[in-house]
Amino acid sequence: MASRATPRRQPSRKGSMADVPKDLLGEIQRLEELFTVDTAKLKAITDHFVSELAKGLSKEGGSIPMNPTWCMGYPTGHEQGTFLALDMGGTNLRVCEINLPEEVGEFDIIQSKYRMPEELKTGTGEELWGYVADCLQQFIEYHHEGENLDNLPLGFTFSYPATQEYINHGVLQRWTKGFDISGVEGEDVVPQFEAALKERGLPIKLTALINDTTGTLIASNYTDQEMRIGCIFGTGCNAAYMEHCGEVGKLAHMNLDPDQEIAINCEWGAFDNEHQVLPRTPYDVIIDKDSPRPGQQTFEKMIAGLYLGELFRLVLVDLHSKADVKIFEGQDISKLQKPYSLDASVLSDIENDPYENLQETHDAFKSHLSIECTKPELELIRRLTELIGTRSARLSACGVAAICKKKGYKTAHVGADGSVFNKYPHFKARGAQALKEILDWEKDREGKRLGRGHDPVEILPAEDGSGVGAALIAALTLKRVQEGNVVGVRNPDGMLHGVPKAKS
């Protein structure tokens, strides 16, 4: 296998570099060297990732938080009841009502989506929780007008690094995804949230605070028992998987059953904050330096949707500034100079441009940035998007491979969600190719031995983790408490007050 495994360009684009002048061709070659991650590097990153996962589980800890979630084990498929789910992501706020019927592995869902106002992201905690509670109030008034409700159990998907001593508790370690809200970091978010609910007289009881990756893992396993890892590749990036308590050194003082499984929210966006192994470019360094949290979330800043457009923008602005590179000559690039003015959807559209002359890309640059691109400039733009998108997918695969190696999974399904995974062109295929290279499937794979007919480890579209997963974890938590297992649950008696007994 060749060490450089950049996906082949489409046949229709062969020869497209023939008319590119030497200065731009030289820059394209430089960018290819900067952004291409070969097989040897993928393996080195994965091996370091494995050791960092283990370090995060230890009593001493490491850069990757590896947070125990107190979601203890997988669903059976027999969970029943009606639950609310709240998902606070980087872009939207979603409120769901999920009904788990008698049919195994089935669910019904109604939902409403609300935009997270930009001003909230740098506001106060009181403003944030007030807005969230207002959205919940709108949802309940719309779907349950005139009904007498009491203590509706809620699973809250809070997709930010949080330390959890209990499943209905969570201390925010740090904001990610561009948030920088005062008065929340280092605090338990649950009392703040509950105070906003109480102020509005809402009949809701927070039953479980979860991460979207944990929800993705649980929801995906609910419909496919081969699911072993839940991933998010969207505005941010993260993963969750089941670990035996005996492997979690930071929980040793609790004397838990070493064979009991507990979901671990990796928060792997923080991988390699020490800059030991990831191949950062000068543009990655700028993104980190200018971010609200320099030195943190190194892995995330190289692969997540929030940063892909900014990487692309920084490269183009840098090329324009070079005296010996002729790009966007004599044009006003002021719109391009605005930080974070381009998002990952711009790159997605460029890679999806079906025309040989890249007409859609030309028109988009003209209408949105007031830049008239030449044919050679369009070829550089297209190649740059391929390089950034491919690097994101290949680096993402390192985390998946690391969990598989740590757990000894020879075969597994991985449930993935998020805008980059679902919408970015070729992300799935590029990630699958990287997994093959890291895990050497083409060297030792025997179809009969594997008995599958697909890749041994497949990354598949996930079930709705932030909705269905949150509801399932709330159901599992109530069931555990009713059975007398209150490990990792705060004030269990209070939690059950007024809540219909969950069936199993």
TrEMBL record:
UniProt-listed Pfam families: Hexokinase_1, Hexokinase_2
Key words, A-Z: ATP-binding, Glycolysis, Kinase, Nucleotide-binding, Transferase
Location of the Hexokinase C-terminal domain: 228-476
E.C. designation(s): 2.7.1.-
GO function term, MF aspect, one: glucokinase activity
Group of enzyme by EC: transferase
Gene3D superfamilies the record matches: 1.10.287.1250, 3.30.420.40, 3.40.367.20
UniProt xrefs under PROSITE patterns: HEXOKINASE_1, HEXOKINASE_2
Region (Disordered): 1-21
An annotated GO cellular component: cytosol
Family under the similarity heading: Belongs to the hexokinase family.
Annotated protein name in UniProt: Phosphotransferase
